Amino acid sequence: MIDDSAFTGDALRKRDSAATKQAILDAARTVFTRSGYDAAGMREIAGLAGVDPRLIGRYFGSKEQLFTQVVEDAYTDHLMLTPEANAETARALLADPTAARADGMILTLRSASNERAATIMRDSLERNFQRALADELVGPDAAARAALLVAICTGVQFMRNVLHSSELIGGDTDTLAGYLRAALDAIATAPPAPTGQ
Q1: What is the pLDDT of residues 143-195, one digit of tens each?
Q2: Would you list the domain boundaries of the chain?
Q3: pTM: predicted TM-score of the whole model, two decimal places
Q4: Is 124 within 8 Å of 74 (Cβ atoms)?
Q5: CATH no. of 17-61
Q6: d(Cα 43, Cα 164) in Å, to the nearest integer?
Q7: How far, in Å, CA of 43 to CA of 56, rounded?
């Protein structure tokens, strides 16, 4: 029988299941972010966590289930995209990202080529963020508008923090934030009722 004392290397921990599980999750996030879903190995994750590889199966069941939990954790740092929050959101998108947001972007890019990983990430994003955002939006087509808002944010983060767009990094942040807020507000604000022709 495997127990939590089955550690390898120098990292000897107490027989604490919560600490063991968290160590595995932390290591998995590092490896999935660095290597992507396909290239990440369970032995590599176990080695980084300082645990017996069999403990991954005990706590998470499979690589897919472990990845699902990592994605759930990585996608929790969301920006609000409603009209009253968009000024702050625009500034945040044009600033250096939090570690969680940066990891989430890189994890997504490096894992998206795997169809199952892409499904897991899309489900998490839609369930935990996009649908909640849609519930906050007033007016028609809230779900589609929420998806557009998420897409705009993702695009800005990708261009600024991954491709390092010189205009988004070196431009006038106040001016850019004003433009970005206007774009977010245009989608987040309910459109006017159509007039008769």
Answers
A1: 999 999 999 999 999 999 999 999 999 889 999 999 999 999 999 997 766 66
A2: 17-61, 75-188
A3: 0.81
A4: no
A5: 1.10.10.60
A6: 33
A7: 9
